[in-house]
C-alpha cells in the first residue's frame, strides 16, 4: 500500500531536475500554467491544449497543477485527480503535472517561478491561492467561475443557484485576487436554466461555455487590454455559495415541493438528498423505516391528495406522490435504496408487494 502511494506521489510531484530539460519553452510562445482538479475542469484543459497546438498559437501549456492523488474504493487504491489522469492520457509530461498539498508550499512556488509563467488559468482547482502565488505570473491569474459574479461566490455556485431555483445563471471569466471570487470580471456568458436540469449536467455545460469564453478572451488577456476592460464587481450584490454538507441532504416534507425539488437537483451527484419513509404491512402491522436517496423529482399541486391522506405516499402515473407543505406534492420518479441501484418509481412500487408508504 505504502509503495503504491509513494510511486504515484513520485510520478505526480514536480521533479525539478527532470523539468529543467522538459520544460524548455519556445521563445515565441508564452508559458501558461493551468490549475484544475475535477472532471468538469477537463473541458477547459482540453480547450487550452487544443488551442496551444494550433500553428498560430502564441502560448503553450507549460505545466498543470492539480490536487494530489487520493484514496478511493474504500482506501484500497490511490488515484490521480481526473485532470492529472486526463493529462497523462493525452501524453502530457508527467513531471510537469504538479500536485502540491497547498499552493503556498515554498518548494512548489520555487518550481513555479522556474517555469516563468506569463499567465495562470484556474478552473475548479480546489486550493486557495496565496498572495505569493498571485504575484508570480506577470499577466495575472484568471478563473473560470460558473456563476454570474458577484452572484454565488464560493465553492458551490451551481449547486446553490439550483437550490435557489434561479431561472438564469452563467459563467464568468475573472481575474483572481486574494479575496474569494472578488476580482474584476473580464467577460461572462448567460445561460437559461430549465426546472429539471441537475447540478452535474449544469456544471458540465457551464464549464464547456467557459472554455470557449476563455479561448475567445485570451488574446485580450495576453495584450493586457483585458485589464482595462475588466469590470469591478459590485459588492452590494454579492451572494455566497458555501460548499454542500451531508447534514443538509435530508428532505423535510413540511416544506413546499418546489423547494424540495430544487434541492434534489442541486444536491444531485454529491451528497445527494435523502428521505425517511415508513413501509407498512397492514396484515401484520409491521412498520419498516427506509432511507432512500431521492434521485429525480418534479413538483406539482396537491389536487389529487385527499384530506385524510396527508401523510400517505400514493402512486400516480409512474411517480410516488408525497404530500408537502404549501398545498403541494413532490413526485418522485427515481430513487435509490442504500447499497442498491437507482430504480424507477414503478420498479420500487412493484417491490412493495402491496405494502403502503407513509412520509415521516
From TrEMBL:
Instruction: Report the residue ranges that make up the Formyl transferase C-terminal domain in this protein.
Output: 243-352
The organism's superkingdom is given as: Eukaryota
Q: Listed GO cellular component terms?
A: mitochondrion
Could you tell me which Gene3D superfamilies the record lists for this protein? 3.40.50.12230
Q: Which InterPro entries match?
A: Fmt (IPR005794), Formyl_trans_C (IPR005793), Formyl_transf_N (IPR002376), Formyl_transf_N_sf (IPR036477), Formyl_transferase-like_C_sf (IPR011034), Met-tRNA-FMT_C (IPR044135), Met-tRNA-FMT_N (IPR041711)
Key words, A-Z: Protein biosynthesis, Transferase
- Where would I find the Formyl transferase N-terminal domain in this sequence? 43-206
Enzyme nomenclature, EC number: 2.1.2.9
Q: What GO molecular function annotation could you give as one example from this UniProt entry?
A: methionyl-tRNA formyltransferase activity
Q: One matching Pfam family, short form? A: Formyl_trans_C
Q: Which PANTHER family match?
A: METHIONYL-TRNA FORMYLTRANSFERASE, METHIONYL-TRNA FORMYLTRANSFERASE, MITOCHONDRIAL
* Family classification: Belongs to the Fmt family.
Q: What is this protein called?
A: Methionyl-tRNA formyltransferase, mitochondrial
Q: Which organism is it from?
A: Pelargonium tetragonum
Report the gene name: ppd194
Amino acid at each position: 500500500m505504502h509503495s503504491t502511494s509513494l510511486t504515484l506521489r513520485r510520478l505526480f510531484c514536480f521533479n525539478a531536475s527532470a523539468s529543467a530539460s522538459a520544460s524548455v519553452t519556445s521563445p515565441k510562445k508564452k508559458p501558461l500554467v493551468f490549475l484544475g482538479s475535477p472532471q468538469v475542469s477537463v473541458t477547459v484543459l482540453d480547450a487550452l491544449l487544443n488551442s496551444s497546438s494550433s500553428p498560430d498559437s502564441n502560448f503553450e501549456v507549460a505545466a498543470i497543477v492539480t490536487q494530489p492523488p487520493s484514496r478511493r474504493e474504500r482506501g484500497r487504491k490511490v488515484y490521480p485527480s481526473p485532470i492529472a489522469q486526463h493529462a497523462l492520457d493525452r501524453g502530457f509530461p508527467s513531471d510537469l503535472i504538479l500536485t502540491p498539498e497547498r499552493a503556498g508550499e515554498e518548494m512548489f512556488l520555487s518550481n513555479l517561478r522556474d517555469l516563468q509563467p506569463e499567465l495562470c488559468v484556474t478552473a475548479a482547482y480546489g486550493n486557495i491561492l496565496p498572495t505569493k502565488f498571485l504575484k508570480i505570473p506577470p499577466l495575472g491569474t484568471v478563473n473560470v467561475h460558473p456563476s454570474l459574479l458577484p452572484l454565488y461566490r464560493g465553492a458551490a455556485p451551481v449547486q446553490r443557484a439550483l437550490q435557489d431555483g434561479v431561472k438564469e445563471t452563467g459563467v464568468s471569466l475573472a481575474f483572481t485576487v486574494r479575496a474569494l471570487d472578488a476580482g474584476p470580471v473580464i467577460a461572462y456568458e448567460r445561460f437559461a436554466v430549465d426546472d429539471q436540469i441537475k447540478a452535474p449536467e449544469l456544471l458540465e455545460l457551464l464549464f464547456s461555455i467557459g472554455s470557449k469564453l476563455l479561448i475567445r478572451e485570451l488574446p485580450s488577456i495576453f495584450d493586457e487590454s483585458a485589464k482595462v476592460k475588466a469590470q469591478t464587481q459590485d459588492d452590494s450584490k454579492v451572494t455566497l455559495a458555501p460548499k454542500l454538507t451531508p447534514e443538509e441532504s435530508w428532505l423535510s416534507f413540511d416544506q413546499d415541493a418546489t423547494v424540495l425539488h430544487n434541492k434534489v437537483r442541486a444536491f444531485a451527484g454529491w451528497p445527494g438528498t435523502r428521505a425517511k419513509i415508513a413501509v407498512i404491512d397492514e396484515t401484520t402491522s409491521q412498520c419498516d423505516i427506509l432511507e432512500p436517496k431521492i434521485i429525480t423529482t418534479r413538483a406539482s399541486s396537491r389536487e389529487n391528495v385527499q384530506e385524510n391522506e396527508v401523510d400517505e405516499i400514493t402512486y400516480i402515473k409512474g411517480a410516488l406522490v408525497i404530500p408537502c407543505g404549501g398545498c403541494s406534492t413532490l413526485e418522485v420518479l427515481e430513487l435509490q435504496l442504500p447499497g442498491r441501484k437507482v430504480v424507477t418509481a414503478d420498479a420500487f412500487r412493484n417491490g412493495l408487494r402491496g405494502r403502503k408508504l407513509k412520509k415521516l
